[in-house]
Design brief:
This protein is of the alpha+beta class. Helices cover about 55% and strands about 10% of the residues. This is Permuted papain-like amidase enzyme, YaeF/YiiX, C92 family.
């Protein structure tokens, strides 16, 4: 990984670790306060709470799996980068296992909650039987073997890895994530930690040069491969607009335009629901402000053009008001992604919340939020619906390969959107 990529990966792991810890606290509180087992059913508020926790957990889980998978793209480069890559991938695996075991400990014996978590949540891409499927990964012999190898390697070389991370504060935070959870994810005897952590340090660099650390990165990836294959029909697919479409779109764009995008075989779906799940805010100079798993960042056009389908809509605002909206959006750059999709707080933002906080209350724009998974939200398809109605936004253009090989505009664009959007 390049230094900035590694930094982003580290920050993502740490943020997701903190998010999973928050979810654990909410789940424990829910278990202690709800009386569903004796009552035999969920109240509407309890149903909302369970749905929110489950969807939020899945979004975070899928983001961690994507991080593990994406490490593969950089394996094989200079070996000096491998310790950081291993720490990020291994930390993501540790957080995943710890969260899955927490779910098992809290709810595996509660038939009512377990039945609820095994329901299908189609709007969010969560199939029926997900709770049981996730728990099966904990008892899979191959997964246990692969994770155990990574555990042993980390324990054997703990101090050497700490020395490598010493000059990188982000890596130190990642190692802290691992150390606080390590005992909870051990496959073998717990005494192994105490007896082995001080051994076999001298050959650390030699083992890197021999390729063992590279193999360990692959081992962590293999551990996540089962879940990855269940999420994506083609994990090797790289979404990308055709060059001619990207060039034509570039001539149409104006500052303030909103990209609404889709990846056909997305490895993960941690955005809001629908055929069109994601949004990015064009600010001019070939840049967008976009909230992804690594947070709210200014990104190049590689990001919105790295999709299979894309729609562009334009706010019905004067340039001066749009400029104000862009400045409001820029004020949120650097904040983490909001896996709780909670629009009542602004310290963490989901993708569409960048648009919401940029334009809400200026130029007469007042967005109506819709309750989903127990939270009031604004989805990307909500934005498209406004454009179809010519309310606050105008449709600019859409490219959707299933509905033509060219950009569609005006009524043709709206027809494509109506045919693809969730009913």
């Amino acid at each position: 990984m390049q230094p900035f990529e590694l930094q982003a990966a580290c920050q993502t792991v740490v943020h997701l670790s903190q998010h999973m810890t928050r979810l654990r606290g909410e789940a424990v509180q829910f278990q202690q306060t709800c009386t569903t087992l004796s009552r035999g059913y969920f109240t509407p508020s309890e149903d909302d709470q369970v749905t929110h926790l489950w969807v939020s957990y899945h979004k975070a889980r899928n983001a961690l799996l994507e991080l593990i998978h994406s490490t593969r793209q950089s394996v094989g480069r200079d070996v000096e980068d491998h310790p950081g890559e291993f720490l990020c991938a291994y930390a993501a695996a540790v957080v995943l296992v710890d969260a899955a075991r927490c779910l098992r400990d809290l709810f595996s014996n509660n038939a009512l909650v377990r039945r609820k978590l095994n329901e299908s949540f189609d709007a969010y891409g969560i199939p029926a039987g997900s709770f049981d499927a996730i728990q099966l990964t904990l008892t899979s012999p191959s997964n246990a073997t692969q994770l155990n190898r990574a555990n042993h390697f980390y324990i054997d070389h703990h101090d050497s890895l700490a020395e490598t991370a010493a000059g990188h504060p982000d890596l130190q935070e990642v190692q802290s994530v691992i150390d606080t959870r390590l005992q909870r994810v051990q496959v073998g005897p717990r005494q192994y930690i105490r007896s082995r952590i001080a051994e076999r340090r001298r050959d650390f660099r030699e083992r890197i040069l021999a390729g063992s650390l590279r193999q360990l990165i692959y081992t962590v990836q293999q551990w996540g491969s089962l879940a990855v294959s269940a999420i994506s029909t083609n994990p090797s697919h790289i979404p990308q607009l055709p060059a001619l479409i990207s060039a034509e779109l570039s001539t149409l764009l104006r500052p303030g335009d909103i990209f609404v995008t889709r990846k056909d075989t997305a490895l993960t779906n941690y955005f809001l629901p629908g055929y069109w799940p994601h949004a990015a805010f064009y600010i001019g100079d070939d840049q967008v402000i976009e909230s992804l798993k690594d947070g709210v960042r200014v990104r190049s056009m590689i990001s919105p053009f790295g999709n299979d389908a894309v729609a562009v809509i334009r706010p019905q605002l004067d340039p001066a008001i749009i400029a104000k909206g862009i400045e409001r959006a820029k004020a949120h750059v650097g904040k983490p992604y909001d896996f709780d999709f909670d629009f009542t707080r602004s310290d963490r933002l989901v993708c569409t919340e960048v648009v919401y906080r940029a334009f809400e209350g200026i130029g007469g724009m007042v967005f109506t939020l819709t309750k989903r998974a127990g939270r009031q939200t604004l989805s990307a398809e909500d934005l498209l619906s406004l454009a179809i109605q010519r309310r606050y936004f105008d449709p600019v253009s859409v490219f959707c390969p299933q509905h033509g090989e060219q950009l569609q505009r005006d009524d043709a664009m709206c027809q494509v959107l109506r045919q693809t959007m969730a009913k």
